[in-house]
Design brief:
By secondary structure, the protein is α/β, with parallel strands linked by helices. It has two domains: about 5-80, Methyltransferase, Methionine Synthase (B12-binding Domains), Chain A, domain 1 (Orthogonal Bundle), CATH 1.10.1240.10; about 90-210, 3-Layer(aba) Sandwich (Rossmann fold), CATH 3.40.50. It is about 55% helix and about 10% strand. The chain has nine helices and five strands. It has helices at about 5-15, 15-30, 35-55, 60-75, 105-115, 130-140, 155-165, 185-190, 200-210; strands at about 90-95, 115-120, 140-145, 175, 195. It has a five-stranded parallel beta sheet, with helices on both faces. The longest helix is centred in the first third of the chain and has 21 residues, at about 35-55. The chain is elongated, with a radius of gyration of 18 Å. It starts with a helix and ends with a helix.
């Protein structure tokens, strides 16, 4: 088995120490850091994402894989400066104002980063104004919003409305998700898309960014 496949399998197994060691070995063997990332770390994370989507594995398995991913990234990061790792796209992400829950949002971030998408994570309890300001300041064309409470869902409508008011609707798109959120609600508030779980979010975000 070649080293890239071993790294991918280490990600799938959630073995952070093995992934770290293999990443160091790859650099010592003068393998390009971009290859170690794309064909090793991210290839393994893609398998994890696909298995999670099929319900073959569950949240704890994804979190272990994410820990292994970050262990490898810590080794490779200094060697990726200057464009060794192409970013497929960028998204602003956060839980809406009044919602202090961010486990689901964090899982979406992990899955997006594992798919090569850069995330500007605003955290939880994020006001509508902050979502829009961050997207404009960062030059990001997609905002992802999460809500776990039915009482905070209307905040998503505020973000979409604010984008319209400021003339950004269409230029900055929106995707929503969370336990009480539905495709019908997304359509009702004028959001561009809806994701029912983290694995599905990757698929939908890629489509909105045009990198599917």
């Amino acid at each position: 088995m070649d080293l890239l496949n071993e790294i991918a399998q280490g990600i799938e197994a959630g073995d952070d120490e093995r992934v770290r060691i293999l990443a160091e070995e790859g650099l010592a063997e003068r393998l390009p850091a971009g290859d170690l990332l794309q064909r090793g770390l991210l290839a393994g994370m893609k398998v994890v994402g696909d298995r999670f989507k099929r319900r073959d594995i569950f949240l704890p398995d994804v979190l272990l894989a994410a820990r292994a991913l970050y262990a490898g990234l810590a080794v490779l990061k200094p060697h990726l400066a200057g464009g060794g790792a192409p970013v497929l796209g960028r998204v602003v992400l956060g839980s809406v104002q009044g919602d202090l829950h961010d486990i689901g949002k964090n899982l979406v971030r992990i899955m997006l980063e594992g798919a090569g998408i850069e995330v500007v994570d605003l955290g939880h309890d994020v006001p509508a104004e902050r979502f829009v300001e961050a997207a404009v300041a960062e030059g990001v064309t997609l905002i992802g919003m999460s809500a776990l409470l039915t009482t905070t869902m209307p905040r998503m409508r505020e973000v979409v409305g604010l984008l319209r008011t400021r003339g950004f609707h269409g230029g900055i798109r929106t995707i929503v998700g969370g336990a009480p959120v539905s495709a019908e609600f997304a359509r009702e508030i004028g959001a561009d898309d809806y994701a029912f779980d983290a694995a599905h979010a990757v698929e939908r975000v890629k489509g909105l960014l045009g990198v599917a």
